[in-house]
Amino acid sequence: MLLRLVLLGVAPALDTVRGNILVLKMIMSIVFTSAEKAVPMKNVGSVTSLRLSAGMLALALATGCGGSEGQNGDDNGPLYAITTQLLIADPVDSYVIVTNQAEQTASLSLDNAVRVTGRALGVGIPKSGAVYVVSDDSATVTRYTLTSTGGLEPTGTVSFDSLGVTSLGEYQANFQFISETKAYFFDGATAQVVIWNPEEMKVTGHIALDALMIPDTVMAFSGAAIRLDGQVLMPVGWRPVSGVGITPKAGVVSIDTATDEPTIATDDRCGYTHDAAVGPDGKVYVATEAYGAAVRRVVGEEAPAPCLLRFDPETRTFDPAFYRTLDGLVGGGTAGTLVPGPEGTAYVRVLDETIAPVVEGTHPRTIASGTGWQWWELEFDTLTATHKASFPATSGSVFLFESQNQTLYTEFGEGATSTTLRVLEDNGKPTVTTQGLSFSFLQLR
User: Fold this and answer.
1) N or C terminus of the chain with fewer C-beta within 10 Å?
2) What is the DSSP code string of 51-117?
3) Would you say which domain of life the source belongs to (predicted)?
């Protein structure tokens, strides 16, 4: 969207997140024999350990549509909508919290938050005073408008079900707002882009992407969309329908926002390239995300090596002469994910097995969403990476959000119980914490 957030970095894809929930459910069924269910939107969420207390399972939740006193105040300063998903609840619910504390060290309450069934996202145009709430529970978008008292009130709905869409539980970046009257929704399940009008709340068209469908695979759009030169550039990844593996294919869908014309580029040199960042040369660098790296760690050379490719937004093609393995950039080890950094740089994540040991039977999703990933800063000019010891090791799943003064990234807590936002420019200084997992963030004013 217009968020520089471009939601990069990133977690395992929606199918990965769903898998993470299944893994967590199985673990919790062992740890808590009385729980039949426990615990991705389209992606993220399993953990290395589940030291959950009975108190966390008995979250006291109050719901409503007003702003929470102490979280949003009554001044005219910045306000944010943070949507969080309580994956350990049964059934899963989400809450849209209005707060002014995104840049402060604080713990947010769910009192007076807007309750949404399923795994929800809050998307929209920054500082527009509206948030569009969606869920994996239906194909309906509900617009909420900020009130004079700092609360949210519903002001319209639109459904995408006429185009065969059944769920909207994807990444925030799968919703791209081109203008006040035109937006895209990238739907991996139906391989299409829905075109809709956020002002009039109606569907206006769609873009078919049937060429992305590969037999016996699951295709997912990433959380790493790039807006550049009148285009939306959306990386694509595939994995086999069954088993643990990665399909050796990278893809980028380019949509001309003036004409809605799509271009599809693919490359067979590596896979699960769900992360992207723009280099100082104007090219887009596309990389394998943490889940793809974790699969390689578990199954070995049967999976494609995590890699870095270069995509030309002018020709809309991959550079056939450019290919780097991610482990080669960091001197070896399990490396995955590309998080945009300060100008001319990005961050690669490297698994530290002294923090998160990998033993026989460890699932790749558990590795990818675990807390043992170190930060390495990559210089695009020299293609050299340096360990950033000042950053704390965090989960492999990372999203970037833009607040009024800072770029924030997500750190997911153990057991899918919490999300802490940290400042990218300040060596990971922690700010606000919410219950559950937060995959979306929007500045309302």
Assistant:
1) C
2) ---HHHHT----B-SSPPTTTS-SSSS--EEEEEEETTSSS-EEEEEEES-TTSSEE---TTBEEEE
3) Bacteria
